[in-house]
# Entry
Amino acid sequence: MRFARIVFGLLLALVGLLVTVAAGVAAFWLVGPDDTLDTGAQPLSSRGVAVMTAPDLVDRHGPTLHVTASAAKPVFVGVGRDLDVASYLAGSEYSRVVSFDLPSRFETQAMKGRSAALTPPAGLDWWTVQATGTGDQSISWPIVDGRYDVAVLNADGSPGVDAQVTFGIEIDGLFGTCLMIFGGGILLLVIGLLLMFVRRRPAPPIPLPIPVPVVAPVMPYTPPAPKQTTQVRRTAGLAAAALLVTTGCAAVPLKNVSQEISTKPAVTLADGQLLLDKYAEVQNRVNQTRDAKLAATIEAGPRLVQTRAATFISAKIDAAGKNIAKPVSYSDIEVGAPEFASYPMRFVSTAKLSTGLTERQLGVWERSNAGSPWLLTHAVFPATAVDVPPLEGLRVPGQADMAKLPLLPQTAGNNLAKYLSEGPASRQAASFVASADLTVLLAARAKEIRDQPVKDYISTVADTFRLSGQPTTFIAANGDALVFVNLTEQFLQTIEPGNNAFWTSGEVLAYSNNVKYFQTLRQDYLHEVALVIPSTGKTRVIGIRSQTVGGGGS
# Structure
């Protein structure tokens, strides 16, 4: 029995020693009182523009991630959704951290691509957390379920990243758990040593009366073997308790379940409000300076075409700047941000104008990739009394949504072009509910068509609208389709043979001033239109914005 005690004690002592050393190293060297296990500063570098983690590397949520980066030049460190980071770095050369073994072994993979500088990362609004500057730059992020990447870049987005990076994982109660395991290891060690070196005192002999013959033992004690079994059970219980301590005192981080679900709203309300504030600031500078290049930093598509035309016309016709637009600001901003799984992304905004209490701006914003800015691509100004579909719950249409509409957006755009070309007498007019600004446009064109043939040098007049490009469509929560279309218009006057004509007034003078034409006079317009296609009933025109974009003749 003594041999068994010594062997069992030796095993317990060895286990206790190993647990004590491991827990002591973990508690006092790897973890510390801040509950954080970190790698220490490790060199991470790339010939390209960034070092980023693979999305499946951060595959558990719950703990807090701490990252500190430092470099010889200003450095950026941030955490972002994988769909944003991947789009931002798409086509660029960078290094990807594909595996990590505690405490400090990293394996990277070089991703080939172009080495051109990126947009400075700190100016992008989609980072979950970020830090940038000189010296040590640190971030802390409570890890959430989903596909996220950690990225380290030069602050200016230039290639050639060379940084010292420390990763740390903070798990609540980790230091306390290590201490408990450390204490359990010491307890096992002590029990093992006791079993090995402490000898049990033998029981004192019991005197027996000589005259009385011994017929049976009268010792009341339990035999030694059962006592030894009890000690083994107690020791095993302590070992089991220590095992429970090691496995149950600190929560194991949960495995991510949404690794395949990678969608996000195009923008948050707060970012949308900041965006419109910035847009108003730049727009006012564009109006003051008539700088079309500056307009390209906040606008794109048909909206930019109209702004370029407006600044060109203003500079030509109002060289002294007497009719510069008043500064504008936006209030009561609302945002409709559909969910997207990839770029490009779009959202809709509506806001009241400081320059007019009777109308508001309704616009579409687009971002082509994560490294590009948000740009306003469409804008109309419906009256505040006009019913606009609710923006909350706005989504990109699917096939099922399109199937429920009485007509497709492309068909609605073509019908509207025919309606405007032919006027109120058009067969398509009955399909639309016209907005106030559309009614004004129709009346103005009708008057021009009536007046022009009165002139003896004009023989005919043709006014033709055409759908330009593809409609941009969103589905509101009530099932209505909010559609933005662009229409081109050519107002063409045919000159009587043997006569000539030239433009004498209007915005077209910016394109043709005192130039005589012998065959035709031409004015070109671009119209931005917002429509609502309900599930039943007529298509409503809720706003149209018109701009002269060319003119002349032949």
